[in-house]
Design brief:
By secondary structure, the chain is of the alpha/beta class. It is built from 11 helices and 16 strands. About 40% of the residues lie in helices and about 15% in strands. A 7-stranded mixed β-sheet has the order 6-5-4-7-10-15-16. The protein has a 4-stranded mixed β-sheet with strand order 11-8-9-14, with helices on one face. It has a 3-stranded antiparallel β-sheet with strand order 1-2-3. Strand 1 and strand 2 form a beta hairpin. The protein is globular, with a radius of gyration of 21 Å. It starts with a strand and ends in a 5-residue tail after the last helix. The protein binds 5-S-methyl-1-O-phosphono-5-thio-D-ribulose (MRU). 5-S-methyl-1-O-phosphono-5-thio-D-ribulose binds next to helix 2 and strand 9. The site of 5-S-methyl-1-O-phosphono-5-thio-D-ribulose has 16 residues, from helix 2 and strand 9.
Length: about 350
């Protein structure tokens, strides 16, 4: 199995998702600016994977800092965090990861560190701590996806065909996947599951990434264009839809790849359950509803071209909102690492964040 992202002695190594499925190549970034550019240009993409990349970018930037005083390192942390935070606006995992890295940084510096008295010693110590934390975020993400898989697998009957949109697999996470993790877990339980993958215009994450990842794993996958989803649902060929998420509001509204809303409405119309698989790090309790989620607007050229080949008149106007918001009324359940949330989400989502009682 490929590794989406990893920390190496040479730098942060990622599979280049802009080159898949034609080429499986890996890139190693040796500075935080490179990691930021990899997120912006979608060499790495998918909310949880962006979160891991953001954490590793912060760790790398701090590790490379020439600062000799803690005050200087703190100023540099702000610069790095700002650069990483400006890359993509919708996936909340990015901001979650930067916030977690900042909390670790400040907490480590605030606590007495016996034997580390000079600024130089404290700087070396906090650098090592941040590298450790970034690697921990990656390992936790994989474990969280496996837990989501265990909770979600029960929702899928053997013999089902599941429709998914975009890529919510190992490529979009530290590994295993959110929506595809649920499918993987159901298959691991011995269920026969087939997948319909929407191609996901315009960036084609479904065609380029989901189809590649599932085929590589030997999971039966049929690629369809986005416009075919309704047809197959009406024909009774789809038993469930599962997608990931980039940000979930406190009321259960779900921001995910453009076209997800259409899938949800079609599923509702055809009495098919519509599930969202997402870790708690994707749930943003600070936004009351999906209306407040910032939607990334990407270059219209991504709509007017396919793989660099023009498919529309050069002068025509085009739009590219990269995400849409699915109202919570269309969401049958949200699958998280702590179990399922169902409507009313205002009650079920906060309950997931409550500390586990013995
Ligand atoms: O623009 P992308 O490719 O980063 O968008 C990713 C998605 O919308 C995914 O479906 C989402 O992050 C799923 S969570 C693994």
């Amino acid at each position: 199995m490929f590794k989406t992202i990893e920390w190496t002695d040479e730098g942060v190594r990622m599979i280049d998702q802009t080159r898949l499925p034609v080429k499986e190549i890996y890139r190693t970034y040796q500075d935080y600016q490179g990691v930021a550019e990899a997120i912006r240009s979608m060499v790495i993409r998918g909310a949880p994977a962006i979160g891991v990349a953001a954490a590793m970018g912060v760790a790398l930037g701090v590790k490379n800092s020439p600062a000799t005083r803690v005050a200087g390192l703190r100023a540099e942390f702000d610069t790095i965090a700002e650069a990483i935070s400006r890359t993509r606006p919708t996936a909340v995992n990015l901001f979650w990861a930067v916030k977690r890295m900042r909390a670790v940084f400040e907490e480590w510096l605030a606590r007495p560190q016996p034997g580390l008295d000079s600024d130089q010693e404290r700087i070396a110590g906090v650098k090592a701590r941040l590298v450790e934390e970034a690697q921990r975020i990656l390992a936790e993400d994989i474990a969280v996806n496996e837990a989501m898989g265990r909770h979600g697998a029960a929702l899928l009957d053997g013999g089902s065909t599941v429709l998914t949109h975009c890529n919510a697999g190992a490529l979009a996470t530290g590994g295993y996947g959110t929506a595809l993790g649920v499918i993987r877990a159901a298959i691991a339980q011995g269920k026969q599951i087939r997948v319909f993958a929407d191609e996901t215009r315009p960036f084609l994450q479904g065609a380029r990434l989901t189809a590649w990842e599932l085929a590589k794993d030997g999971i039966p996958v049929t690629l369809i264009t986005d416009s075919m989803a309704g047809h197959f649902m009406k024909e009774g060929k789809v038993q469930a839809a599962i997608v990931g998420a980039d940000r979930i509001a406190a009321n259960g509204d779900v921001a995910n790849k453009i076209g997800t809303y259409t899938v949800a409405v079609l599923a509702h119309e055809n009495h098919i359950p519509f599930y969202v698989a997402a870790p708690l790090s994707t749930i943003d309790m600070s936004v009351a509803s999906g209306d407040q989620i910032p939607i990334e607007e990407r270059s219209p050229e991504e709509v007017k071209q396919v793989a660099g080949v023009p498919i529309a008149p050069a002068a025509v106007e085009a739009r590219h909102p990269a995400f849409d918001v699915t109202p919570h009324r269309y969401v049958t359940a949200i699958i998280t690492e702590r179990g399922l949330a169902r409507a009313p989400y205002e009650a079920s989502l906060p309950a997931l964040f409550a500390p586990a009682t013995a």
